[in-house]
Amino acid sequence: MPWRINGEHNNGPHLPRRHRPVPGAVHGAGDRLRQAAPHTWRPLMMAWMTWLAGIATLLVLVYLVYALLRAEDLE
């Protein structure tokens, strides 16, 4: 397979220039498509998940410092 086809890079699978979409596949479909309702609970859910991750990280760091201090005392 050549490095360049018609002076352009071959960057993997693509539609050829002569490709024509199926008539009526996209045009006129706007009235048949429904818009999804926004999720109002998502920011609140992300907030408590962020706090939970922060608390868990803090607990791990506190435990590591405690284990390090305890290991120095055992020496």
TrEMBL record:
Residues 1-29 are annotated as: Disordered. It comes from Mycetohabitans rhizoxinica (strain DSM 19002 / CIP 109453 / HKI 454). GO terms for cellular component: plasma membrane. The chain crosses the membrane at residues 48-69. Keywords: Membrane, Plasmid, Transmembrane, Transmembrane helix. GO terms for molecular function: P-type potassium transmembrane transporter activity. InterPro entries: KdpF. This is Uncharacterized protein.
